[in-house]
Design a protein that fits this description.
The strands form 3 sheets. Strands 1, 2, 3, 4, 5, 6, 15, 16 and 17 form a 9-stranded mixed beta sheet that branches. Strands 10-11-12-13-14 form a 5-stranded parallel beta sheet. It is α/β, with parallel strands linked by helices. The chain is globular and about 70 Å long. The protein contains 11 helices and 17 strands. 34% of the residues lie in helices and 21% in strands.
């Protein structure tokens, strides 16, 4: 059966995803080489690609499920290495104290669907209280909920009063301590072991203060090299990678010395830090769009005045260092920090990555093969080649010519199932 813009297709999409056996792509991006292949056919079995052939050389059976994208430009599904699905971007600062964990988790269900429909078929959630992200991942994997493939970190791990995990908005007499607080190397190891016990895929920590945490200086180091090294050793011994939130110069270098796998934000990275990251093959995940949302909509959303002031000192420097690190050849993955700004707008980062030094192809590679490598999942995702999941996005125009088209996907397919149409 040939799927077209028919009432049957629309009813199927409205009721949920449907599987397809063949996809005809008018233009198909080989994201590794940058080549654009004309009139290709993807054959899909059990959610994976079993053949990529030219349309002229392929006979599609009449009784097969066939998605015709002959008028579209098709790319691999995008990946976002830094999201916070739980909660709402429009409820920030002290307002967020009124949100229960149950409510935040329900927001996660809504945000997961928005993220997938935006073309992001795989994401890494870097921190969620109470292992709510583990539950969301498992419900999506079971097919009960709609959302991207998820790598999850559970509660972030950090020092008392630090940016990660601790609750700095409440006063002392509330006796509120975050569920990932760890001081000292052995406590760091213990929390890593606990997080792994309860099902995380990645370990998230902080080696500096942050923009959005009350009372922390964005560039100040947090956790010693000894603490970070213990955390990384423990995580790696269990086969888990480590992502370290790090804005400040010293904290970035401390995390690099400890052997983390990715530096999140990297706002004030200096030349030595860039050289260290390049030499070690450490990925930088730099969220260079969300400064616009924080400064434009932050006050209305409830961000603290001190957070807005910190962002004013950080955003422009981060963008300049993004360009410097890219020019130096440091590995870079796509990370939006969605959750700070609304989910579903993840792709707005692409145009900023191009504005600050990348070609459109390099920006697309950052969100596909690079992020798949960072995730350690290159055997399954990142490219539209035989053996990998049939995760892809279709656009009405070429993102190589107009990168902003990534913000307007026409079709989204995850594991061979169509989850969004125009």
């Amino acid at each position: 059966m040939r799927w077209t813009y028919s009432l049957v297709l629309l009813l199927l999409i409205h009721s949920g995803a449907f599987a397809t056996d063949y996809v005809t792509a008018g233009r198909l991006l080989d994201v590794r080489s940058g080549d654009v292949l004309e009139k290709q056919v993807l054959t899909i079995v059990d959610g994976r690609i079993t053949a990529v052939t030219s349309q002229a050389d392929t006979s599609i059976p009449d009784d097969s499920d066939h998605l015709d994208l002959s008028d579209y430009f098709v790319t691999p599904g995008f990946m976002d290495a830094h999201v916070h699905l739980h909660g709402s971007a429009k409820i920030q600062g002290y307002r967020n104290l009124g949100m229960s964990q149950a409510t935040a988790t329900l927001w996660g269900v809504v945000n997961a669907r928005k993220t997938l429909h935006a073309g992001f078929t795989t994401v890494r959630q870097v921190g969620a209280p109470g292992f709510a992200d583990v539950a969301l991942r498992d419900m999506i994997d079971s097919g009960e909920l709609t959302g991207p493939r998820m790598l999850v970190g559970g509660p972030s791990i950090g020092i008392t009063g630090g940016h990660c995990s601790d609750n700095n908005l409440l006063p002392f007499d509330r006796e509120s301590i975050g569920d990932g607080v760890a001081d000292g190397p052995w406590r760091m190891r213990a929390i890593v072991r606990r997080n792994i016990k309860f099902g995380v895929d990645v370990i998230k920590t902080c080696s500096t203060g942050g923009v959005l945490s009350k009372g922390t200086e964005v560039g100040a180091p947090q956790s010693t090299v000894e603490e970070l090294t213990a955390l990384v050793e423990e995580a790696h011994s269990h086969g888990r990678k480590v992502a370290s939130h790090a804005h400040g110069t010293t904290g970035i270098k401390n995390a690099l010395k400890a052997g983390v796998d990715s530096i999140e934000h990297a706002s004030f990275i200096d030349d030595e830090g860039i050289r260290m990251a390049k030499r070690q093959g450490t990925y930088l995940v730099m969220d260079i769009y969300n400064t616009e949302y924080i400064l434009g909509e932050g006050e209305k959303a409830g961000f603290l005045a001190e957070s807005l002031a910190k962002e004013r000192r950080t955003g422009a420097t981060q963008r300049a260092n993004f360009q410097k690190a890219h020019e130096a050849g440091v590995k870079m993955a796509f990370g939006s920090d969605a959750g700070v700004y609304p989910h579903g707008d993840n792709a707005r980062q692409f145009s900023r990555m191009v504005r600050f030094g990348m070609t459109p192809l390099e920006a697309l590679q950052a969100a596909t093969i690079n992020t798949a490598d960072l995730f350690g999942r290159s055997e399954d995702i990142g490219e539209l080649v035989v053996g990998k999941y049939a995760d892809f996005v279709a656009f009405s125009a070429s993102p190589l010519q107009d990168i902003s088209i990534t913000e307007r996907p026409s079709f989204v397919v995850k594991g061979g199932e169509v989850v969004k149409t125009p």
